[in-house]
Automatic annotation (TrEMBL):
Keywords: NAD. InterPro entries: NAD(P)-bd_dom_sf. It comes from the Bacteria. The lineage of its organism: Bacteria, Pseudomonadati, Pseudomonadota, Alphaproteobacteria, Rhodobacterales. It comes from Pseudooceanicola atlanticus. This is Epimerase.
């Protein structure tokens, strides 16, 4: 039987997973909200579907389900449109994965959290995620796996362009640390889970080195041979409400479970290896 993945909200992380699955003969259906993006997905070998729209065909074919779309104040957008259909097909799915966020843990003043840490989000987006996780968990017979992702970076999503054009900022908030993960490591964790389903499992996805954000910017500048962007105090820095909200929570996220349960060995265990690889990729693409 052909393995068929229905990817709801086929974005950055899902596309990285597709690069692993397509060469193995998988059929992948992906939803997007625009015709232009649908055409881009088609060029990548994805069967595109503009959402909202009729998904009866891929829902009937799907053996695996990946949910990447984020929730809003009204809940999960996919369940708003597809809950009855997903409930109907749930018992015959082999695997379902929901991409959540480590924001569900809230603020721990730089302390460590793991998958058993109580969910105490302090931001609006974190609270939406907790509600969405629960909504997906409530679907009977859905072989659900929840992946709580730290800050995602990868090709096209690194600090180099801002460092080069002089807009990078080293915002200093004492004690502030973030966890992060390279998109290729997200893809390999998802692939490992698909190969070893464990319905009900929850996994943190992050690298081994929670670090202050200014250290990452500084390292990117060093790799480029650029001067360090000046330091700015968090309390007085001009920031959008969205950017400022990211600093409301500080925690170090444990990733032991992806290693012990799934046998994953991170490709980029820290941002140093990840940024070096992104720079090498840029150079290779430029010839």
């Amino acid at each position: 039987m052909t393995k068929t993945l229905l990817s709801l909200g086929h974005g950055f992380s899902a596309r990285a997973l597709s690069e692993l699955l397509l060469p193995q003969g998988w059929v992948i259906h992906g939803t997007t909200r625009s015709a232009d993006k649908a055409e881009a997905l088609k060029q990548e070998g994805i069967v595109p579907h503009v959402f909202p729209g009729n998904l009866s065909g891929p829902l009937e074919e799907a053996t695996h389900l990946l949910i990447s779309a984020g929730p809003d104040a009204e809940g999960d957008p996919m369940l708003r449109h597809l809950k009855d259909d997903i409930t109907r097909i749930a018992p015959r799915l082999e695997w379902a994965g929901y991409l959540s966020t480590t924001g569900v843990y809230g603020n721990h003043d730089g302390g460590w959290v793991d998958e058993d840490t109580p969910l105490t989000p302090s931001t609006r987006r974190g609270k939406w995620r907790v509600a969405a996780e629960a909504e997906w968990q409530a679907i009977p017979d859905l072989p659900l796996h929840i992946f709580r992702l730290a800050g995602i970076y990868g090709p096209g999503r690194g600090p180099f362009s801002k460092v080069r054009n002089g807009t990078a900022r080293r915002i200093i908030k004492p004690g502030q640390v973030f966890s992060r993960i390279h998109v290729e490591d997200i893809a390999q964790v998802l692939a490992a889970s698909i190969a070893q389903p464990d319905p009900g499992a929850i996994y943190n996805m992050c690298d081994d080195d929670p670090a202050p954000p200014q250290d990452v910017i500084a390292h990117a500048a060093e790799l480029l041979g650029q001067p360090l962007p000046p330091e700015e105090d968090f309390e007085t820095a001009e920031m959008t409400p969205m950017a400022r909200s990211f600093y409301a929570e500080s925690k170090r996220v444990k990733n032991d479970k992806i290693k012990t349960d799934l046998g994953v060995r991170l490709i980029y265990p820290t941002y140093r290896e990840g940024l070096a690889a992104l720079l090498d990729l840029e150079k290779a693409q430029q010839g």
